[in-house]
Amino acid sequence: MEKGSVQMLMEKLGYDGLEIQYKQTGQPFFRNNPELFLSISHAKGWYAVSVGTEPVGVDIEPFSSRLKQGQDYFRNERELLFSEDETALQLVWGAKEAFYKWKEGQIADLKEEVTLVRILEEKLVIEFESDEYQLGFRVFEDVFLVFTL
Q1: What is the distance between the alpha carbons of residues 42 and 6, in angstroms, rounded to a whole number?
Q2: pTM, 2 dp
Q3: How far apart are alpha carbons 75 and 93 in whole angstroms?
Q4: What's the domain count of the chain?
Q5: What is the Cα–Cα distance from 17 to 103, expressed in whole angstroms?
Q6: Where in the sequence is the domain holding 29, given as residue range(s)?
Q7: In a 3-state reduction of DSSP, which class is residue 137?
């Protein structure tokens, strides 16, 4: 990832001058502002940044027809109903990625422990440890953005 691209996004969000560092797990954080949480995603020239006072997660992915072929890598049995819908599969993948970042990587088996149970209008409902969580999403220019609310 280009450091300049992330820094430019941070400046647009009003967070210029904050030093970004990375934990051993790869999770970004602000070195001088531990009260703020940060999530960064990038793919094929697209960048997304989320900042909050509580843990946050964001994922951005351009549409990929290859995702359908590799769905057994990330889709569990409860998500079989999404297996033929390429848009839904993109959202399953994005929801799991954003949620993993939100939980700061503290999920042992992302495929089996996190399940997308419903797709609503611009919201996703996932289940983790018998609790339901909502994430937001937007689709534009064949790019899928999933984020914590």
Answers
A1: 9
A2: 0.91
A3: 8
A4: 2
A5: 26
A6: 3-57
A7: strand
Cα angle value 140/44/4 (rounded, 5°): 105
User: Which two tokens mark 140?
Assistant: 């534009």
Residue 54 tokens, joined: 């509580």
My answer on whether 106 and 140 are in the same domain is: yes
Contact 57, 98 (CB under 8 A): yes
pLDDT tens per residue, range 74-88: 999 999 999 999 999
Residue 2's pLDDT is 52
48 and 64: one domain? Answer: no
Structure tokens at 1: 């990832």
CA distance 124 to 115: 10
19 compared with 81, residue with greater pLDDT? 81
